Amino acid sequence: MRGIKVLLFGLGALALLAIAVILLIFVIALCPFIVACLTLMRRNLARLWSDFKRGVFAWIVLSNYPLHRFFKFLRDHKRVEVTYVKRFPWNQGKLLIVSNHPSWLDQMALTQSMLSYLAGSEHVNTLPYIGTAKDSIVRLPFLKFLESFYILTPVERKQKREAGPLIERMEDILKNGGNLIISGPAGRDFRMRQDEEIRSPLKQKSIRRFGGLCGRLAAIEELAVTTIPAYIEGTERLFVQTNGKKEMKFSVHNFFVPFLLLDRFQIKIVFGEPLLLQGWPKEKARKEIEEAVLHLADLC
User: Fold this and answer.
1) Of 90-94, 117-121, 161-165, 178-182, where does mean pLDDT reach its minimum?
2) Of the candidates 239, 173, 183, 189, the residue with the CA atom closest to the CA atom of residue 211
3) Distance between CA atoms of 147 and 130, rounded to whole angstroms?
4) Per-residue pLDDT averaged across 33-60, rounded?
5) pLDDT at 228 over 80
6) Residue 169 has pLDDT above 90, yes or no
7) What is the DSSP string of 156-177?
8) Residue pair 235/189 in contact by the 8 Å Cβ criterion
9) Given strand 180-183, what is the order of strands in its sheet?
C-alpha cells in the first residue's frame, strides 16, 4: 500500500514537472509576443494620457481661456489685425504653419489667431503644437510647463546631433494629424547677421533667412502636410533691446502706453495661400516658403 502511494506521488511529481516544462517552453516561445504586447500597451497608455492632457488644455483654451478672450478684445479694437489670403478649414489637421520670427510672442499670436477663427471647436488637433527653442524651454519654467501639456515641442538649433530625434517628434505630430507652428529662421530677426538679411520685393521689409527645417518637413511625401506661410510684424515693438542689443526684454510701458492706450502701432498677421510641397527637394521647398512669406510682408 505504501509502495503504491510512493508511486502515485512520484507520477504526480513527474506530471507537474512535465507541465512546468511545457509552460516554460510556451512562455519562452511567446516571450517576443508578450514583450511586443507590453510595449504597445505602454505606448498606447502614454498616447492616451498625452491626448487627455492636451484635450483638457484645448478645452480650456478654446472655451473661456483669458488669453483667448483678451486677444479677441485686441482684434475687436484694431490693435491686432489678422488677414487670411485664402480661407480654409484649420481643423483639417496636418497643417505646417511657417512664419518669420521678430520676437518671442510670434507663435503665441499665431496660435491665438487660429483659435479665434476656430472658437468653439472640440477637435483636439485645432490646438497646434508650437516649435520652441529647446534652450528656452530648459531655461524658462513656464515653457517647461507648457511642454508637459504637449503644447510645445522642442527645436534644437545649436547641437545638430541632438536635432534628429526632435525632428522625428515633429514628423510624428504631423503624421498623426496634428498642426504645427514653427518659425522659419533659426532665431529671432534682431540677431541676424548681414548675410542672413533678405527683403520683400516691393516694400523692402527685412526678415531673417529661413533655415532648412521648414523645407524638410514640408517636402516629406509620406507626411502629406499642407504648408501655410505666415508673416507677422509689430510684436518686436513690445520689446526693448538690452545687454548691448544682445537680448530682448518685454516692455510693460510699450505694451500699455503706445500699443494698448495710444494705438501707435498694430500687430499685423497675414496667413498666405496653402502650399503643397510634398516630394519637392528640401532646399527648393524652403525657398518657396521663404519667398511666400516675403510676398506676404508686402501686404502689411
Assistant:
1) 117-121
2) 183
3) 9
4) 57
5) yes
6) no
7) -SS-HHHHHHHHHHHHHHHHTT
8) no
9) 80-84, 267-271, 226-233, 95-99, 180-183, 129-133, 152-155
The CA-atom distances, in angstroms, between 94 and each of 31, 123, 228, 239 are 37, 13, 11, 32
Pick the closest to residue 208 from 224, 195, 225 (CA basis): 195
Place of cell 505504501: 2
Nearest to 130 by CA among 159, 91, 95: 95
Checking if the pLDDT of 12 tops 70, the result is no
Q: Could you tell me the residue ranges of all domains in the chain?
A: 1-59, 65-297
CB 95 within 8 A of CB 273: no
CB 54 within 8 A of CB 178: no
Cell numbers at residue 137, please? 524651454
User: Which amino acid does the sequence have at 18?
Assistant: A
Look at residue 201 and tell me whether its pLDDT is greater than 60: yes
**pLDDT of 124 higher than 50:** no
The beta-carbon contacts of 121-126 under 8 Å, at least 24 apart in sequence, are 121/62, 121/91, 122/59, 122/62, 123/91, 123/93, 124/51, 124/54, 124/55, 124/58, 125/91, 125/93, 125/177, 125/178, 125/179, 126/58, 126/62, 126/90, 126/91, 126/179
pLDDT at 144 > cutoff 80: no
At 62, list the grid cell: 478654446
CATH for the stretch 65-297: 3.40.1130
Place of cell 518686436: 236
Tell me the one-letter amino acid at 161: R
Handedness of CA 111, 138, 133, 191 (dihedral sign): positive
Question: Residue 254 class from Cβ within 10 Å (0-12 exposed, 13-18 middle, 19+ buried)?
Answer: middle
**Rounded distance between C-alpha atoms, residue 218 and residue 143, angstroms:** 26
Q: 28-32, 188-192, 207-211 — which is least confidently predicted? A: 28-32
pTM: 0.76
